[in-house]
């Protein structure tokens, strides 16, 4: 039934199409409902109704918020019809997108398609403005920005155009046929083993989209879709926007190319002494005369080319109560004070800390007991054990072998004690297993001026002669300590979870003890591979 046109309007309606239009409009049910609501409201307004419930105002407020929330949670993106398969190039169906952009970047990168020459969206940064809008997708072809055609523009020019625009930006795009699958927030965390600054990276497709980080940073990897550029953000960072970082594979390749010397054997930092693995033996020895340079390193010091430090996947770990402790590994240049720090730890809590008992093939002396100063074994057995890789480190001095057996470490750990072990840096990688979960600390010397001040009365056990006599530090010792520490940090920095400067001894000791306490009791990051053995 045609609706009636109000009388007041009738004289103005002369054309038949106007008449049809008005009839249709007044015939619409929604309009009629609105008019009815309007009339009811007017009716009640005049009667000034009293609320039925005292809490009516609060209820109304709550309902309003509920309605707001319901609406806010709904997606009102326009549902575009899928593109037909037989899309004609000359008849591109375009999509007009209007985004309101504040100061943050758009969060998308573009490139010129080699084949078609078109400007296409190369990637969408997770959590960025473009991603959150859900309207722009990888592969979309960009035709216009704010009405300016971009076909003939270089990607850099377009980026500039985008960076300059504030507020609403209108894009005209030809949507890519394949739309990206929405993915769940990934839970992959990587510890960065190198420093990275996109400003120094010529290869990055968009410097502004890069994410800078330092060695030791924990990164949440948001996307590994691209083989060369991952998307990541700093762990715990509230901002959902991801940045570009080089992928593990790509960075490894770059490191391998950048460091042709990586395959060369390491230069010994000191020809004077083969420092390091004598140390873990010395603490448990009473015979102080025959220590030090008596051991010759037998393990290879070849730099492992597989050790290109990029990223290591990590996860959170908290030592279950009663579980074995992580192995506490100390590394540092000769004379820096590792022995002193271990001694202080042992004295501070002998029930809690312990060291390994070394093995030797030399004959037991009268005052010695097997298993106290050393485990005394035959030369033949020592050689068999070497052959069977039973030693973490071993050496030979005056025809006798000395070494730290892996089982000695196990023995300390199985007594539920923290095992303090100091090793040569190249040994660390043998210990990096789920069983030992080594917590590796580098002890560094302070600046040389401070060494001169603090070590005035200290003595270094000289390795120049075989007697191992203790002598005051020389200027050369200090210099060597500083340069060795620098080399250690450059070559093995990625292996250290903690770096302590041994300036004031009690401060350094406090720091070391605090760090050990933290790994014993608190949640921290650990390589994923160590958590499922
Ligand atoms: N912070 C410090 N301040 C002053 N003296 C120190 C400090 N740390 C260590 N020393 C002293 O320096 C000397 C060398 O220390 P220590 O023997 O512990 O070194 P080390 O790292 O074990 O060296 P190496 O393995 O080459 O023997 C000792 O006399 C020690 O008391």
TrEMBL record:
Keywords: Cell junction, Membrane, Repeat, SH3 domain. InterPro entries: GK/Ca_channel_bsu (IPR008145), Guanylate_kin-like_dom (IPR008144), Guanylate_kinase_CS (IPR020590), L27_C (IPR014775), L27_dom (IPR004172), MAGUK (IPR050716), P-loop_NTPase (IPR027417), PDZ (IPR001478). Residues 96-177 form the PDZ domain. Residues 325-517 form the Guanylate kinase-like domain. It comes from the Eukaryota. Residues 185-255 form the SH3 domain. It holds the Pfam family PDZ. Residues 1-49 form the L27 domain. SUPFAM superfamilies: P-loop containing nucleoside triphosphate hydrolases, PDZ domain-like, SH3-domain. It is found in: Cell junction, Adherens junction; Membrane. Belongs to the MAGUK family. This is MAGUK p55 scaffold protein 7a.
